[in-house]
Amino acid sequence: MRAPDRIAVAGVALLAAAVGVLTGRVIGAETTDVAGLPVVLTQRGTTMDAADPADPGQARWVATDEVLASVVPVVVTGQLADRDVNVVALTAAALPEAARVATDLRGAGADVAQLTMEADWVDPDQAALRTGLTRQLRDSAATGPAATGPAATGPAATDPSGIDELTRLLARAVSGTSDSDDGAVLAALAGAGLLTNVSEEAREPRDPTTVSVLVAPPNRVGRTTPAVAEIEGWVQVVAAWEEVAPAGVLLAEDNEVGGQSELLGAVRRGAVVAGTESPGVATVDHAATGVGRIAIVRVVARLPDGQSGHYGFLTGTTAGAPVP
């Protein structure tokens, strides 16, 4: 067996081992069922130095995931060759996670554009700014065919918050689905302070099969619970983006086991209630783990073909990662 083949086989074996840990099929790992799903009751988001030596399940999980994380580049290489992907940080708090996602996607061969949507995008106090900016862009004909889209009656008439139509404008501008002056849209959003860290790739023409990965800030046990209006606003963003992104959208978030994910949970509940759990929206709730990083790459590879899904630890998932 050639050396590269040995490495690939080792990567697959490590992935299988990690999935075993995630589902509790490892000696010493304590599990419980949440809505019929096995959940490992060990601390996540830590390092071997911080692992509790008295908890063999935790130490086993951390050791396995650290090894798996080290071979992620080998496991994902070539899976996204020449694919256009957007990585969108939902506020600056998500930038470290978004940077790691972008690095993995580039390692898989993707052409990655990066940008950050700032907190004012969903701040209820900034509704006038958003609706005014949307109206300005529409009046200047920068939206092109978007004038006949979902918000043709005007942003304020259907969405007083201004979140939906402004999100559609951005999604079209970076997803190759608009005939308008996308550069003018990005410049206007950046000038208003709603958009930052726009990479050069985001300003270049994108393919209509571009997948967008929206990266939420990490969800840590003990963190301050986001305001309801903030969560509702980001749920609107995800839904509006998915509405105009034909290749699909992935919402990625990293959660500690036992933590509650208001944003990702709301998106999953909405997908089930609305019956839209395909092919547009997918979710990953363990984005910083080795198996989560592999899951993100595999989901991005499958979304343009209409294959969606929900992966990770929390309620509503079907597996730790898509099966190769």
How would you sum up this structure, described in words?
The protein has 324 residues and is of the alpha/beta class. It is built from eleven helices and nine strands. The chain has helices at residues 3-22, 56-70, 72-76, 95-107, 127-139, 155-158, 163-174, 182-191, 228-244, 262-274, 290-302, and strands at residues 31-34, 37-40, 84-90, 111-117, 195-196, 211-215, 249-252, 281-284, 310-311. The strands form two sheets. It has a seven-stranded mixed β-sheet with strand order 5-4-3-6-7-8-9, with helices on both faces. Helix 11 (290-302) links the parallel strand 8 and strand 9. Helix 7 (163-174) crosses helix 8.
Question: What descriptive keywords fit this protein?
Answer:
single chain, 324 residues, alpha/beta, seven-stranded mixed sheet, 11 helices, 9 strands, globular, disordered N terminus
The unreliable regions are 1-51, 141-157, 273-279
Average pLDDT for all residues:
76
Query: Any idea what the shape is?
Result: globular
Alpha plus pi helix count: 11
Beta-strand segment tally: 9
Element order: H for helix, E for strand: HEEHHEHEHHHHEEHEHEHE
Percent helix: 40-55%
**Structural class by SSE content:** alpha/beta
Question: In angstroms, what separates the terminal alpha carbons?
Answer: 21 Å
Describe the sheet with the most strands.
7 strands, mixed
Q: How much of the polypeptide forms β-strand, as a percent range?
A: 5-15%
Order of strands, widest sheet? 5-4-3-6-7-8-9
Integer-rounded radius of gyration: 20 Å
